[in-house]
TrEMBL record:
<feature type="region of interest" description="Disordered">
    <location>
        <begin position="855"/>
        <end position="882"/>
    </location>
</feature>
<feature type="region of interest" description="Disordered">
    <location>
        <begin position="514"/>
        <end position="539"/>
    </location>
</feature>
<protein>
    <submittedName>
        <fullName>S-layer family protein</fullName>
    </submittedName>
</protein>
<dbReference type="InterPro" id="IPR012334">
    <property type="entry name" value="Pectin_lyas_fold"/>
</dbReference>
<dbReference type="InterPro" id="IPR011050">
    <property type="entry name" value="Pectin_lyase_fold/virulence"/>
</dbReference>
<feature type="domain" description="Filamentous haemagglutinin FhaB/tRNA nuclease CdiA-like TPS">
    <location>
        <begin position="35"/>
        <end position="146"/>
    </location>
</feature>
<feature type="compositionally biased region" description="Polar residues">
    <location>
        <begin position="855"/>
        <end position="868"/>
    </location>
</feature>
<dbReference type="Pfam" id="PF05860">
    <property type="entry name" value="TPS"/>
</dbReference>
<dbReference type="InterPro" id="IPR008638">
    <property type="entry name" value="FhaB/CdiA-like_TPS"/>
</dbReference>
Amino acid sequence: MSFKTAPNWLQDLGLAIFSAVTLYANISVAQITPDSTLPNNSNVKLEGNTRIIEGGTTRGANLFHSFSEFSVPTNSTALFKNAADIQNIISRVTGKSISNIDGLIKSNGTANVFLMNPNGIIFGKNASLNIGGSFVATTANAIKFDNLGFFSASNPEAPSPLLTVNPNALLFNQIVAAPIQNSSTAPAGSTPGGRDAFGLRVRDGRSLLLVGGNVNMDGGRLNAFGGRVSLGGLASADTVGLNGDGNNLSLSFPNSVERSDVFLSNGAVVNVIADNGGSIAVNARNLEMTRQSLLLAGIESGLGSNNSRAGNITVNATVAINLNNGSLIANQVEPKANGQAGDINISASRLQISGGAQVSARTGGAGNGGSLRVNAQDVQIIGRSANNWFASSLGASAQPNSTGDAGDLTIKTNNLLVRDGAQVASSTFGTGTAGSLSIDAQDVQLIGTSVDGEYPSGLFASAQPNSTGDAGDLTVKTNTLVVRNGAVVNTATFGKGKGGSLSVDAQDVQIIGTNPNDPNQPSVLNASARQNSTGNAGDLTVRTNTLLVRDGAQVGTGTFGAGKGGNLSVDAQDVQIIGTSADGQAFSGLFASAQSNSTGDAGDLMVRTNTLLVREGAQVSAGTFGAGKGGNLSVDAQDVQIIGTSVDGEYPSGLFASSGLNSTGDAGNFTLVRTNTLLVWDGAGVGVESLGTGTAGNMTLSARSIRLNNNASLSATTLSPKVDPNREQATIKINSNDLIISRNSNIITNARGANVIGGNININTDVLAGFQNSDITADSTDFRGGNVRIKTKNIFGIQFRDIPSPNTSDITATGATRELSGNVEITTPDIDPTNGLIELPINLVDASQQISTACTPGSRQSQSSFVSTGRGGLPISPTEPLQDTSTLSAWVRLRPKPVTRAKTTISSQPIAVSNSTKVAAATTIVEATGWILDSNGNVKLVAQVPSVTPHSSWQTPVSCPASR
């Protein structure tokens, strides 16, 4: 059997915890014994269970005590009997025993109490404090007084007469400093809000500092309501700064020295919540919080004012922060409280949050929530609590019934991983606005859902149900963004407020797959207004080099309510939208939509890219399924390829602007702004349509080349009669150099229903070719057909027919009756086929004059050969310059024109064809008698050849001089 080795930092954490627990288990209970190292030594007398500590050496406002051992047994009290004017009681242990505190430490007045023992300090379950000032427990070797001297425990000596100033540093000179442990859960009175408090407690507004080697809190609690708690230590020799202003003490740690570890386990709690102030600072190599351990700051329920402000929580770990099993770091304005919450600042090399643990900056009252900032090399947010109730998360929020604004959430990291149902979120449930969520990373991966598939992993910025505040914006700046297996990046409103905008700026964006437990839940990048909301959705903007959306994943904006959907804008070098979900029910796509039962308008969808590829059933779509209007879809690309269908053939790949079944809103337009090549292939389609009562949009295509092949289509479909007679609907406008449709492909405007007029088709192209039963039709099933207007220089393989033939390429504009047929106008300004054709002579040139005798095969001057192959004709002379011989030809079958419902005209100028025109005789074809060159060098067949003066080539013939 093989075992995986845990990372070094986890091994270090485990070793440190084991050492700390071992230390606590093997300690013996000592007493308080003074030594004789002071000018005025300490005195201890026992009265009942109370040891009264008197004497000591006083210097100014400082009182110094020195003991060879110092411990307080269970149910015992150590009382420092000091004068009222003493500001600092500074005690040291010079012996070799650990201080075991399982009773009460008490002092008079408002003095700060320092307990220094380099051997270690243990606070048991019954340990408690009753002092007027701040309390510092440290395993440092000495306390420094500015540059005037030290009060040393490892090198005892009488304090200098100058040691009248406040202490300003803690000096560690051990290779490994001894640990401090706290397991105290002793009753500690009531919180400022009237709740029961337990553990070590200093008076409200005072400071409680544990500074050692490792600091371990196993179920223990620390309380400094409205004050400060600082935890930390050093793992090597150096100095920790001690900053003080009266009773307010804090620590400053050097950046260049290795720190020790801090552990909170089994429900350990650090609590500074009050009506004002209250801050927590943790400085460590590693911080681990497990089994519902807590760091709490903020404004307590029922307390505070408009001017109240909580302090900050600052966690600085040089290696790792690990929060798990429901542990929590929170800075909050509690319900019915008033005031500004403080911020949470987290800095580490690695941050891991798992097992339902959370870091939360929030407000539940009248004040604003604080901001949450994370700065780490690697951030991992993983999974949920064991009961699946709580997501592992980073969050900034305004809670239900709150009126304050939520703070911002900012993450700066190299790598961000959110997986297995974990979440990073900014939100509002109240009347205040939500904060913004900003991610600045090298790599962002959002993966999967909770084990049961119910909760997606992701990034969220939202205004929740019953809220009236606006949602915040969500910004992701990264090299790589991967969202897969049902994960979500989402801004949304569920209430009256607006949804936030979503912006992604990346080198590579991949949105892949669906929820493994539910293929109908895709991986998404989304900005939306949700069901029953009245606020507008935000916009979604993606700027990237490469965007890949595949296997049922989706990128979109939408509205399910009364508010408008946001605009979706994609600006990329390469966009690939590919395939469907494994079961074929969810197709990959870019979407801007108004969903069923919504009343708001959908937003517009704009794609700017060099290359757009949509294939295997994927779609790019702007549409409405409700009462609001559908948005416009526009594409600006160098190359557009729309290929194939879903695996089962049910869903075509495509670009669409539409209104769906049962919708009442108008559909938007589709515009291909410009492209070199539009390729629609293998059942794919580009379409505008209205399947509801609203009008369809129009399609406008501008391209150098358009190719439709193998059941491909350009379509404009409508079931709705025109509401606005001045507005066209379901019209297709094409402007291209060449338009080739082949193998059962179609350009079609399809009108169905009573009084539904067919859309028009307007084509302007140099070359129009249709082969193998490919049609251009502007038909109406039950009313008047549309018009087809074609302007082209060359047309091949496709022709107008009143009655389409099943195996030919046709141009039609039929209606319900002959009188309701549309018009077909074909304009070919440079071709007049009525001039006719004549039979060409068999020999156009004298073949004997086409080969130079100067270049004789086999001779010394030329050992090469010349071979000409092809469809016939003679090779050009080797003495002439090379010429372009490419041609474009098509077979044309001439036959009498069938009886038709509508009449077409092919002319050098457009000629309208009336629906009521009688059937004319077949047009007489006159054979051409010759050909001419126009001013552009093009060859034209003409019925009569003008008189011209022939001339020979103005280029010098090629010669093959023989060498001698």
